[in-house]
Structures are given as structure tokens and as C-alpha cells.
Design brief:
By secondary structure, this protein is of the alpha+beta class. The protein is about 50% helix and about 10% strand. Strands 3, 4, 5, 6, 7 and 8 form a six-stranded mixed β-sheet that branches. Helix 2 packs antiparallel against helix 3, helix 6 packs antiparallel against helix 7 and helix 7 packs antiparallel against helix 8.
Length: about 350
């Protein structure tokens, strides 16, 4: 039900109430303190036959005055008592929304979360100044909740009930991230795929999710690939690569390269930048050259990365570092933790 229609009525009602109070009290009481004004307004609420419009207007005035004065505990006590005493009031979700915001102001977000949840679960939706109360609750819950299962529910509700209020593209990717956090990889991948199918997926900018399009693209492509280039251990990958170089077997060497997002860049380039090397083949670079490699691997920035230094590739830039890394793909436990040859850094290490 729309309650904004009451806002105009509330102005009339409050004006009548104030005029009535002023005429009864006389000029000498025209500057009565806030406490006295509140008591008089509450007295009006107790009058028999008061209309729903008048009740809303007076209650709203009392609550907003307490909020503006910073009396947050008082407004919570007042409104929760009101809701308990008036269980049939169609505006109870609005009063509880005020309580939730009061707790936000008091930095008690866990209590506020309880009230937002209570509104969504137990009270019908209302529209305040053209905006859904349930939508406002969901928006706040996403901001303050740290429970991934709950956040999954919030995002799904926003997508299904308020598609016109949100960016569906962003909702899909945020929902997918939540599924990741709970280990629901089948749902995560399905949702990432739905994200990629959106027309603005490649252009959307989400401040806290840098390069999310390429991340989602990699997950889907990797999931759909045979993954047959991975090795159980770093030692096996290194040994196989060295043997292919020693035996001058470029096709065999090509078979060891990652088939998803393999890169060949200089040390100053970003390995995520497109290189356009779809037809990249080691044979084009091995022909006529004597390739050598270091006996030992070079440790990477983390224990999950390593480099193999090789030389002899070209007269211009003869040194290449093969970049090996551990596969991070929890969606497939059989592949997760294996090793892959993910790319090449061209030139001497910086």
C-alpha cells in the first residue's frame, strides 16, 4: 500500500493538532518544550475514533523528532511498544524500519540486521516516497551482513523481485562470488555464465571487483576445457618441459602449454592483457635455434609459482622465462592443486 498519500494528510493533521493545542494552552504556553509537545501528541493518539491517517501522521512526527534529536534508544522503545500494542497497523513495517535505522546510527548493525530481516519475513511490503521498504531492507542487509548464506538469499530476492531497481549484471557476479565463498561451485559457475551472457558484462565497472569479466571468462573457459595439459607436480612439469626442449620437440612442448589464457609478455606488461596469440606455436621460435635452459627453477613470488630460465630463442630477445603455477580451481578437486605452464615472460627478469 502507498503511504506517501498520507504525507500530505499528515501535514494537514499536524497543523490542526498544533492549532488545537495552541488554542487550549494559550499564548503563554506557545513555547512549550519538546517533552510537553510529545505528551500532548500522545494524548491525541489515545482519543477514541482517531483516523488511521491521523494516527500515522502523529506517530511519524513523534518518531522523527526523536530521531532528529538523536534519541535512538527512545525511538526504538517507543516504536517497538507501539508495534506490539497495534499488531494490525498496516504501517508496522515502516515503524520497524525506523528502529533498524536507529540501530545503524548506534553502530549496532547486528541488531539492525535482525529488524531488516523481521520486516521482510513477517510484514507485507509498503512504498515510501516511491521506494519499496523491502527493497530498502535488502539493500541495507547486503551492506551489513557477513553471512554468505544470507547474502545469497538477499541477492536472489533482489534479482527475482526487484529487477528494475538493480543492475542484473552486477547482481549475477556478486551472487556468483557468494556461491564461491560457500563452496557451491556448480552454482557459482552457472551464475558466472549468466553474468557473461549479459550485454554489458565486458564493460561493467564494479569498484571492489577489479577485472571481474576476465576472471569469470577464465573460470568458464577453464571449466569447459579438457585440462589435459596439467601435471601432478612441479617437478614432473619441469622435467617434461626440459625433455621436450632437449629433444627438440616443439609440438610436444606446445601440448604442455595451458590452453586457457596462456600469455607471452615482457616483464613490464600485464599478463592479463590480450596478446592475440591464438596460433602461438613453439615451432615458430625453435626452428634454427639452439635452446638451452637452467638446471634449477627460480622460485616465484609465492610457493605456488616458479620460473624456468631458457635462452637461445631469438637474436633480439634470446632469454625467455617459462612461468609455472599451481592450478587454483576448487570447482574440480581432481585438477585443483596440479601444475600448469601458464605463460612466458620475455627478456631478462627485472
Amino acid at each position: 500500500m502507498e503511504i506517501k498519500k498520507y504525507l500530505f494528510l499528515s501535514m494537514i493533521c499536524v497543523a490542526i493538532c498544533v492549532a488545537t493545542l495552541a488554542s487550549c494552552a494559550g499564548k503563554k504556553h506557545s513555547r512549550a518544550d519538546d517533552g510537553e509537545t510529545r505528551r500532548e501528541l500522545e494524548a491525541l493518539l489515545s482519543q477514541p475514533g482517531i483516523s488511521a491517517e491521523s494516527r500515522f501522521a502523529i506517530t511519524n512526527k513523534i518518531a522523527k523528532k526523536m530521531l532528529s534529536d538523536g534519541d535512538f534508544y527512545d525511538v526504538v522503545l517507543y516504536l517497538t511498544n507501539y508495534v506490539e500494542a497495534n499488531g494490525g497497523d498496516e504501517h508496522n513495517s515502516y515503524w520497524l524500519l525506523m528502529c533498524a535505522y536507529a540501530y545503524i546510527q548506534m553502530n549496532q548493525e547486528e541488531v539492525a540486521e535482525y529488524y531488516f530481516e523481521r520486516i521482510i519475513r513477517n510484514y507485507p511490503d509498503l512504498t515510501v516516497k516511491g521506494q519499496s521498504i523491502h527493497y530498502m531492507c535488502l539493500e541495507r542487509l547486503i551492506q551489513i551482513s557477513t553471512n554468505h548464506e544470507n547474502r545469497i538469499n538477499y541477492f536472489n530476492t533482489l534479482i527475482s523481485q526487484f529487477p528494475e531497481n538493480v543492475s542484473i549484471t552486477e547482481m549475477y557476479v556478486r551472487l556468483a562470488r557468494e556461491y564461491e565463498q560457500t563452496g557451491e561451485w556448480a552454482r557459482a559457475l552457472k551464475t558466472y555464465n549468466m553474468f557473461l551472457e549479459q550485454s554489458d558484462a565486458s564493460s561493467i565497472q564494479i569498484a571492489d571487483l577489479h577485472d571481474i569479466y576476465n576472471y569469470a571468462r577464465y573460470l568458464i573457459d577453464f571449466n569447459n576445457s579438457p585440462k589435459n595439459w596439467t601435471f601432478a607436480t612441479l617437478n614432473e612439469l619441469s622435467s617434461a618441459t626440459k625433455e621436450a626442449i632437449t629433444r627438440y620437440q616443439p609440438r610436444r612442448l606446445d601440448s604442455y602449454r595451458s590452453k586457457v589464457n596462456f600469455f607471452a609478455v615482457s616483464w613490464r606488461q600485464d599478463e592479463n592483457a590480450p596478446t592475440g596469440q591464438v596460433e602461438f606455436s613453439m615451432q615458430n621460435f625453435m626452428h634454427g635455434n639452439r635452446i638451452r635452459f637452467s638446471d634449477n627453477l627460480i622460485s616465484g613470488p609465492t610457493i605456488n609459482e616458479a620460473y624456468l630460465r631458457t635462452t637461445g630463442w631469438t637474436t633480439g630477445v634470446p632469454t625467455w622465462y617459462f612461468y609455472f603455477r599451481k592450478v587454483n580451481f576448487p570447482a574440480d578437486p581432481k585438477i585443483h592443486g596440479r601444475w600448469e605452464w601458464a605463460g612466458i615472460y620475455i627478456g631478462e627478469m627485472l
